[in-house]
Amino acid sequence: MSERVSTQVCKVLGVNFFNGSLIESLSISKEGGLIVAPSGPGLASDLTNCSVYARALLEADLVLPDSGLMCLWQKWIKFEPINRISGLKFLQTYLEDKGNLNDSSYWVMPDQTQAKANQLWLSRNMNWMVPGNEIYIAPIYNKTGDVEDLVLLEKIREAKPKTIFIQVGGGVQERLGLFLKNNLKYRPTILCTGAALAFMSGEQVRIPQWADRFYFGWLLRCLFAPSIYIPRYLKAFRLLYLLKKYGHEFPA
Question: Which of 65, 84, 89, 229 could serve as 222's disulfide partner, Cβ 3.0–4.6 Å?
């Protein structure tokens, strides 16, 4: 972690969350490294149940405070407010930066359907033409433990993209990002922003800016697919227990 980033962090559950502005976080991202935006459910479950996920957050170069629940706790209970930067807002603003259009990129997608939808959305809305040889359809990775993808690693070594967009979902992409960071001999920007692109392209429920700003993204997801998201977000309330018990410290 650079000296500049280390002066703008708030440690929660042992993780150094960035506590600056969106513009500052975008500027830092251009320096390269692993960038993650852990969700509330991820912090509530994966942080304590998967050591590789925890290591990815601890070794990331920039950790965005995406969880609205965590940010509200820090503001109203701990009186140590964190400036929330959602993965959705970060990715949208990153894509809107026309300077990034000239940079080489590589996209890791979960399946062909989402790849085509995301590719079409990027072309229509961001004027970002992503050729097929810059898209990789990820296999099904392990739910816990190390994630290793030697095929992807070799493709990235050959292409040497400046930015790697990982779109395979929280809990997995952080571990994949850590694997790439530790095995590449150069320093690309590795963006792990959850399902942000799928929200924008319509592959998952669209989240308006007002809903993201006022922390209602979770509610729209629950209405969109209640059988999937209601159990997930109910489990996320375990985060309150962890925050109360451990505060700044990493959960034992």
Answer: 229
Residue 194, domain member (yes or no):
yes
End-to-end CA distance of the chain: give it in Å, rounded: 23
pTM of the prediction? 0.89
pLDDT in tens, 96-132: 987 887 789 999 999 999 999 999 999 999 989 999 9
Residue 158 CA to chain centroid, in angstroms? 25
Distance CA 19, CA 9 (A): 5
Query: Would 186 be classed as within a structural domain?
Result: yes
* Element containing residue 10 per DSSP (H, E): strand 9-12
Domain presence at residue 4: no
Number of domains making up the chain:
1
Concatenated DSSP letters of 134-198: GEEE-----SSS----HHHHHHHHHH--SEEEE-S-TTTHHHHHHHHHHH-SS--EEEE-TTHHH
Domain-located, residue 6 = no
Residues 216-239 pLDDT 10s = 555 555 566 676 556 666 677 899
